Amino acid sequence: MELKIRPEEITDILQKHIKRYEPKITIEEVGEVIEAGDGIAKVSGLPNVMASEMLEFPGDIYGIALNLEVREVGVMILGDFTNIQEGVVVKRTGRLLSVPVGEPLVGRVVNAVGQPLDGKGPIDTDKYRPIEGKTPNVIERQPVKEPLQTGLKSIDSMIPIGRGQRELIIGDRQTGKTAIVVDTILNQKGKDVYCIFVAIGQKLSTVAAITEIFKKAGAMEYTTVVVATASDPAPMQYIAPYAGCAIGEEFRDNGKHALLIYDDLYKHAVAYRQVSLLLRRPPGREAFPGDIFNLHSRLLERAAKLNDEKGGGSLTAIPIVETQAGDYSAYIPTNVISITDGQIYLEKDMFNAGIRPAVHVGLSVSRVGGNAQTKAMKKVAGTLRLELAQYRELAAFAKFGTELDKATQAQLNRGEKLVEMLKQVQYQPMPVEDQTIIIWAAVNGYLDNIRKERLKEFEEGLLQLIKDKYPQTVEEIRIKKDLSQDLINTLRDIVKGFSDTFKT
Predict the structure, then answer these.
(1) How far is 320 from 267, CA to CA, in rounded Å?
(2) Exposed e or buried b per residue across 78-104, where buried means at least 16 C-beta atoms within 10 angstroms of its C-beta
(3) Phi and psi at residue 431, in whole multiples of 5°?
(4) pLDDT tens-digit series, residues 74-108
(5) Spatial distance between the Cα atoms of 133 and 246, rounded to a whole number of angstroms
(6) Nearest 5 degrees, angle CA 292-CA 298-CA 302?
(7) Among the residues of 317-405, which ranges form H helices?
(8) Does position 1 have pLDDT exceeding 60, yes or no?
(9) CA gap 360, 442 in Å, rounded
(10) How far is CA 495 from CA 96, 250, 421, 433, in A?
């Protein structure tokens, strides 16, 4: 059979295809690198670029537009910038930098852009949030009124932290700042609080050690670790806290509770200073750029307790700021103190004297106060701060070797026992009901006649006795969160009986 090709049929088919063809024109705005180095690139030819927009470099490397000038754009490069050279083409993406969020991030260790670092495979989530979120306004918030216990007697009794609060931890290096926040995270076990630990400019070995502590204590079940180590470029250290905050906001906006640790914001400010000076921004006090206050305030203002219409979720922020030689009046410490709702001062001398956690009660304050405490704790800890302050004053006088009357000696003895009672072993947070019992015993004078070196033994023995023989007492304090007169009478009998047997 002979196959005949008819030209009119071919023409007909071609004409139909031509009619159906729609030209698709894609327009991409591209620029060119005119200068690059130290994690910064100057790009020309992007007239419509937005502030903080993501820009794409070859090799799947991204940058953020920071400086928008007349003829060029200053771009902060995220990741490896060694291959970015003059003449390289840069594309606009039209979107802001976003990070993956949601439940799949719980238990993971990620970098500042949400990429996994723990070798457990990709993060299975389709939810993303821009790292710069909108701050809840006054109407959308409610006052801080729920306690967020740290498990540390000295903090929960005198400088309480509430859900939705921002409490600064400030002190020199090696005074136990990170230990306090690690204890706080360990203490959230079984309390429906998601924790995000953001390590900024820390050594990789330090972050690995902290992650190991979380794993051993079972805290990784509710914790996400965001890491931008000292070996990471300054832009990654700059965006790390914002990425951590976006992860926490996802929980807050869905009616859940999240705790966010920034360790530490001084290193964050230094990373931003580096980026700013390379972008030729004018330096101000201590060579930091003028917008450094805005940098931290727009980060910390995102912590909030939302109202019931918004789901009642909360995001609590605990930033850490390291001071140099106890200089609390330096630029960054004073900035962050003015933004937060209180601060916990850690003192080097107290730490070296073995008083740990080394909380300086006189300089520490919580501007939320008793609203963030249980009624039981408020009752027992009311006089604690005053007694400790008076003890510090008297102890300074006693050093002169002056003869003291009996009342003053008794006050010194009580203060000494209170200081000893507030000491706590690292990574062993204490439930609030146990704290209430031991602080009640201390402020009511039941520790006054016990030798200082046996106080720890007394504390452990008393709590064990109550757990074994009077579990209903602990349970009542835990559930009611208050001390009725009957409960106080029961406690008095238990503590007095144990105190007498302990001394003999």
Answers:
(1) 10
(2) bbebeebeeebebebeeeebbbbbbee
(3) -60, 150
(4) 999 998 888 899 999 999 999 999 999 999 999 99
(5) 7
(6) 150
(7) 331-339, 348-352, 375-381, 384-398
(8) no
(9) 19
(10) 60, 46, 15, 15
- 129 token code pair: 């949030």
Beta bridge partners of 74: 42, 67
Rounded to 5 degrees, what are φ and ψ at 184?
Answer: -60, -45
**Amino acid letter for position 7:** P
Nearest to 47 by CA among 78, 22, 33, 68: 68
Q: What pLDDT does residue 291 have?
A: 94
Q: What's residue 159's pLDDT? A: 95
- Tell me the C-alpha to C-alpha distance, in Å, between residue 497 and each of 466, 471, 490, 503: 12, 16, 11, 10
Q: By CB neighbour count within 10 A (0-12 exposed, 13-18 middle, 19+ buried), where does 425 fall?
A: exposed
For residues 417 and 452, give the distance between their C-alpha atoms in angstroms, rounded to a whole number: 7
Q: How many CB atoms lie within 10 A of CB 52?
A: 15
Cis upstream peptide for 264 (omega within 30°): yes
For residue 129, the model assigns a pLDDT of 96
Kindly name the residue from 141, 281, 298, 367 that is annotated as catalytic.
367
Q: Which two tokens stand for residue 156?
A: 């929960």
53-57 and 223-228 beta bridge pairing? unpaired
Rounded to 5°, the CA angle 273-275-278 comes to: 105
Residue 370 tokens read as 């008793």
What's the pLDDT tens digit per position in 390-433? Answer: 898 888 888 776 678 888 889 999 999 999 999 999 999 999 99
Task: Look at the block and give the residue holding tokens 């003291």.
Answer: 404
Q: How many CB atoms lie within 10 A of CB 123?
A: 16
> Pseudo-torsion of CA 406, 412, 417, 420, nearest 10°?
-160
**Rounded CA separation 310/141 (Å):** 9
Q: Is 367 one of the catalytic residues?
A: yes
Cβ contact 243:87 at 8 Å = no
Report which residue type is found at 127. Answer: K
The pLDDT value given to residue 17: 79
**Structure-block tokens of residue 10:** 């071919």
CA dist., res. 77 & res. 59, Å (int): 12
List Cβ neighbours of 301 (8 Å cut-off, separation of 6 or more).
Answer: 135, 339
* 194-225 confidence digits (pLDDT tens): 999 999 999 999 999 999 999 999 999 999 99
When the pLDDT of each residue in the chain is averaged and rounded to a whole number, the result is 93
- Quote the DSSP letter at residue 116: B
